[in-house]
Amino acid sequence: MPFLSDTLSRVKPSPTIAVSNKAQELKAAGEDVIGLGAGEPDFDTPQNIKDAAIAAIEAGKTKYTAVDGIAELKQAICAKFKRDNNLDYTPDQVSVSGGGKQVLYNALMATLNPGDEVVIPAPYWVSYPDMVLLAGGTPVVAEAQLQTGYKLTPEQLEAAITDKTKWLIFNSPSNPTGAGYSREELKGLTDVLMRHPHVWVMTDDMYEHLAYDGFEFCTPAEVEPRLYDRTLTVNGVSKAYAMTGWRIGYAAGPKELIGAMRKIQSQSTSNPSSVSQWAAVEALNGTQDYIATNNEVFKRRRDLVVSMLNEIEGMTCPTPEGAFYVYPSIGGLIGKTSAKGTKIVDDEAFATALLEETGVAVVFGAAFGLSPNFRISYATSDAELKDACERIQRFCAALS
């Protein structure tokens, strides 16, 4: 009798975490490595948020809390949804978990049965398909293309939906591409969903506030209010507030779904960190001024990376609307050979050779469901990004 569960054979470890760990190991061994794999801001958590956490500790707010969030945080989340998205929720429609990933996982575990399908546009965040598999569902990948800015078209969504479809997982701005859907583009997708009332929408809005060049974020239930009763709107404090390690994600949706998610959390992790919850209250209710300041830095870095990568023959790098990633295509480099003899047969071979020969760690595109590409996170210093892009330029120039 095998000791480990058969479920493990259906999933793989996170490639993005693997790249970050590899880069850290090489650095610890004294190698000159620039890691561009981690999806987290390099800014420190704002002082007002840290002060709120310290105050919570000193006030003894370190005990168990309600399973899916303290009342004060749920009220702050409801206020955020009204303020930013014109969505009305009550606290009993809100769930708070140990990061956005747990929110998504709880929702999938609460709703999926064997045979249920989940439409996932590609390129996708690496964890979506594996979470669907862990929950017993079947991922259905709908590939977006470079020609459409890596955005799914209504026709592609229509073709992916069957009578077995339970969810569409939607992410804008996107990890890994940074692509953001305009209101008109999103309306095209919601019109399709209105023709299929059995399909629910799980929208991952984690990068909502990281938007550039006047891009105006919108979320499905805001664009099409008739989807409100079958939408789970997911967000968190990790990206906009530089709170990745605090592990607070949240969602709002129909009471029955939120109650089911609460039941699962009550028998798995129970409540998220009490101190982190109080910090998140301050993040949502306090000043938002630093978001625009940080975005100016991200935009400058984005423009630097896009410009330098587009100088490379055989590489095409679109300019993303948001997040802090670029997702260049390397279609013109496939089949070439690196200076040290590695055949670039696919994007994984490209990323491996790039790390071994230049010390630049990126994540290969196959991990995100669309090749031949790679992802760079530009959430690091201008100097490191310039150095890394120069190394990539030299590596590609030496291909033959």
TrEMBL record:
<keyword id="KW-0032">Aminotransferase</keyword>
<keyword id="KW-0663">Pyridoxal phosphate</keyword>
<dbReference type="InterPro" id="IPR015424">
    <property type="entry name" value="PyrdxlP-dep_Trfase"/>
</dbReference>
<comment type="similarity">
    <text>Belongs to the class-I pyridoxal-phosphate-dependent aminotransferase family.</text>
</comment>
<dbReference type="GO" id="GO:0004069">
    <property type="term" value="F:L-aspartate:2-oxoglutarate aminotransferase activity"/>
</dbReference>
<protein>
    <recommendedName>
        <fullName>Aminotransferase</fullName>
        <ecNumber>2.6.1.-</ecNumber>
    </recommendedName>
</protein>
<dbReference type="Pfam" id="PF00155">
    <property type="entry name" value="Aminotran_1_2"/>
</dbReference>
<dbReference type="InterPro" id="IPR004839">
    <property type="entry name" value="Aminotransferase_I/II_large"/>
</dbReference>
<comment type="subunit">
    <text>Homodimer.</text>
</comment>
<feature type="domain" description="Aminotransferase class I/classII large">
    <location>
        <begin position="32"/>
        <end position="392"/>
    </location>
</feature>
<dbReference type="InterPro" id="IPR015422">
    <property type="entry name" value="PyrdxlP-dep_Trfase_small"/>
</dbReference>
<dbReference type="GO" id="GO:0030170">
    <property type="term" value="F:pyridoxal phosphate binding"/>
</dbReference>
<dbReference type="InterPro" id="IPR004838">
    <property type="entry name" value="NHTrfase_class1_PyrdxlP-BS"/>
</dbReference>
<dbReference type="InterPro" id="IPR050596">
    <property type="entry name" value="AspAT/PAT-like"/>
</dbReference>
<keyword id="KW-0808">Transferase</keyword>
<dbReference type="InterPro" id="IPR015421">
    <property type="entry name" value="PyrdxlP-dep_Trfase_major"/>
</dbReference>
<dbReference type="GO" id="GO:0006520">
    <property type="term" value="P:amino acid metabolic process"/>
</dbReference>
